[in-house]
Amino acid sequence: MVTKTEETELNQLENQVENGGGGVWEYLSLVRKLKVRRSEIVLKHGLSILNDPGKRSALGPDEWTLYEQVAIAAMDCQSLNVAQNCIKVLKKKFPESKRVGKLEALLLEAKGMWEEAEKAYTSLLEDNPLDQVIHKRKVAMAKAQGKPSLAIEHLNKYLEVFMADHDAWRELAEIYVSLQMYKQAAFCYEELILTQPTLPLYHLAYADVLYTIGGLENLIAARKYYAATIDLTGGKSTRALLGICLCGSAIAQLSKGRNKEDKDMAAPELQSLAATALEREYKQKAPAKLNLLSSALRSLKISS
Amino acid sequence: MGTGSNGELKYEISQNAYIKLVLHSLRHKTAAVNGVLIGRISPKDDGVVEISDSVPLFHSNLALLPPLEISLIMIEEHYVAQGLSIVGYFHANERFDDVELCGVAKNIGDHISRYFPQAPILLLNNKKLEALSKGKERSPVMQLCVKDASKNWRVVGADGGSKLLLKEPSANVVLSDYITSEKWKDVTDVDDHLDDVTKDWLNPGLFN
Amino acid sequence: MAEDLVLDTAIRDWVLIPLSVVMVLIGILRYFVSKLMRSSPTPDAKMVKEGQVVIRARNLKVGANFIPPRSFRTRRFYFTNEENGLLHVPKGEATNPQAAMFSDPNMAMDMMKKNLSMIIPQTLTFAWVNFFFSGFVAAKIPFPLTQRFRSMLQNGIDLSTVDVSYVSSRSWYFLNLFGLRGLFSLILGDENAIDDTQRMMQMGGFGFDASKSLGAEKDGLDIIQHEWALPRFEQRAESVLRKLVK
């Protein structure tokens, strides 16, 4: 995950690079380190280095890393010829390399030659059955072909071995959500909460999923996880505050006529506090939307 | 107006509503995005639904209910004063060559049609969008889907989308202008707004 | 009894410095040779999985209170049930690491390569030093030492009358052999700082560790008392918000 400071550093460098202020190599290295997706800029500036023999040879052995980076960026931008040329250079330099083999398979993927790519990956897996990148590529390929259920199958198989890989759990959760398989998604988010119990992001996502599943018990649980998000973010999360209000109104509707004594059911204090916090936030930051928010909250029967 | 007359209904989308949605999907090229259509039944001719505005909604986890509910409430509240309401749903798939309407889109469409029975779903057609920069595509780059008598969503296809009209015929020209000037970078959706409330999903400065 | 010996500067130029330089060069050479010979370790799927299971079980133990009770119970059952729980190691199947080492020729081969790259250059240099420089007093350290250090510093000189602060050439060789590690880690980067003996111990210890920690994690999970932390968070959120809106 990219932190705030890293992101500002990256954006600063990007601005500098885009305005011709130099520091291209530093920018490219940072993109690699943070594993962010800025393919168009990487392609543009990486290629300008590669096309300049002086600059290129000044990199020393990093030259080959740059070829790899540019090749991947080019594939992302559908500049397949550029990618092909980069891979050709690398192939010449490292004829036996598995890493170049992966790039070649990736190129097949970019061309949409799914079967050939599949074959290439399978043969690469024979050499090293535990290559995580290739397993993940297979998932991505299934997704790209519009076969989410196959992607889920691959991911589950991958997670059987690499069950501590939270990125994979997250991907699985998102696929499940997109297929509206909320119960399964909830399981994945539980797993993510376990890996990083103090990260508000997962609490929020879990709460959203629980709310979407619905039912009194889930709504009450969702409210608790929204509360956790609020606690962990210091009350800064608009989504969680709104979530509390939504939960409150939904719970009130569902529990109509039931025993109101149940202390778990209603949390009027939390709701009104959340509403006040929201109104305060909007007043400070988006006064034009304050009326809108107030009437929205009124329609949820929360605010006065 | 019953479902029977649905077949003759025409949808007329204004340039701003149209461009906003397409730019939104361009901003998040690698993800599925959605939005809602704002408008009313034309006072002059009740066979026409005027889509006068649009609000870009989300670009991540479209299938989660809480953000959707809250945004629909807020949007309704905002437009009710102008006599407009939510009249349809816009969806752009994650993959380029995916022309199917996914379950999420259908469900949200169903939800909207509960309040506005003639509500259509507009699905972005990537092929047409790509052709826009090259040729002289005059018809909208979206596909119209409506509910048929048996409550299933179906694409109103073959007859060239004549049921979905651009109010201003120049809309596609303006759109390709905006695309080349990378105007899509300025679009904000409700997702952005929920992360940072200072960002306005009405996109007031977009067309200046 | 100790009279000052005057060391010829030629000894410095022709023994002390060449010896040190040769030792450094051989160290670097050895590093590259062993790098060439080291086959990249291909981990075994079972071992990787066991490691991952342990991490996940540990996460469950630490974060248990953050997920609802029912979710916790199903997970615990998944990990610890006696039939096919992930942490359940059937008796007798616990692998003996030493047996595994001998049954896997690659492992033995690896160790042999490592030993070869260590022993051969050492014997060669030792022979070389012995042949050319035996019996030299090569240097003098600037502080006095007790008699105990004689065997360490004056290896190869059988004179009991020489002051202990004089260092024989053979001892200089040994001092270099053991003392240059810090220099190497400066020259070759930190990777080299772990010396071979340590690496060997890690290798041997790893396989053993995994199956044993499976059992330990299972016991840990079994005794854990689940107490859902989330209800408390509602109060905490209330107090956070109260502070915020005030």
From TrEMBL, chain A:
Gene3D superfamilies according to UniProt: Tetratricopeptide repeat domain
Keyword Endoplasmic reticulum: yes
InterPro entries to which the protein is assigned, alphabetical: EMC2-like (IPR039856), TPR-like_helical_dom_sf (IPR011990), TPR_EMC2 (IPR055217)
One Pfam family named in its UniProt record: TPR_EMC2
EMC2 TPR-like domain sequence ranges: 100-209
DNA repair recorded as keyword: no
UniProt keyword annotations, A-Z: Endoplasmic reticulum, Membrane, Repeat, TPR repeat
Localisation per UniProt entry: Endoplasmic reticulum membrane
Domain of life of the organism encoding this protein: Eukaryota
Its membrane topology: Peripheral membrane protein
One GO CC term on file: EMC complex
Known function: Part of the endoplasmic reticulum membrane protein complex (EMC) that enables the energy-independent insertion into endoplasmic reticulum membranes of newly synthesized membrane proteins.
PANTHER family tied to this protein: TETRATRICOPEPTIDE REPEAT PROTEIN
Subunit annotation: Component of the ER membrane protein complex (EMC).
Protein family membership: Belongs to the EMC2 family.
Name of the molecule in the record: ER membrane protein complex subunit 2
Record organism: Capsella rubella
TrEMBL record, chain B:
CDD domains: MPN_UPF0172
InterPro entries hit by this protein: EMC8/9 (IPR005366), MPN (IPR037518)
PROSITE patterns listed in its UniProt record: MPN
Residue intervals of the MPN domain: 11-146
Superkingdom: Eukaryota
Pfam families reported in the protein's UniProt record: UPF0172 (PF03665)
Any single GO CC term annotated in Swiss-Prot or TrEMBL for this entry: EMC complex
Family: Belongs to the EMC8/EMC9 family.
Name of this chain's protein: MPN domain-containing protein
Organism name: Capsella rubella
UniProtKB/TrEMBL annotation, chain C:
Cellular-component GO terms for this entry: EMC complex
Superkingdom per UniProt: Eukaryota
One of the GO BP terms on file: protein folding in endoplasmic reticulum
Pfam families: EMC3_TMCO1 (PF01956)
Keywords: Membrane, Transmembrane, Transmembrane helix
Topology of the protein relative to the lipid bilayer: Multi-pass membrane protein
Residue ranges of the TM segments: 14-33, 119-143
Subcellular location: Membrane
Family (UniProt): Belongs to the EMC3 family.
Protein name, per record: ER membrane protein complex subunit 3
Classification lineage: Eukaryota, Viridiplantae, Streptophyta, Embryophyta, Tracheophyta
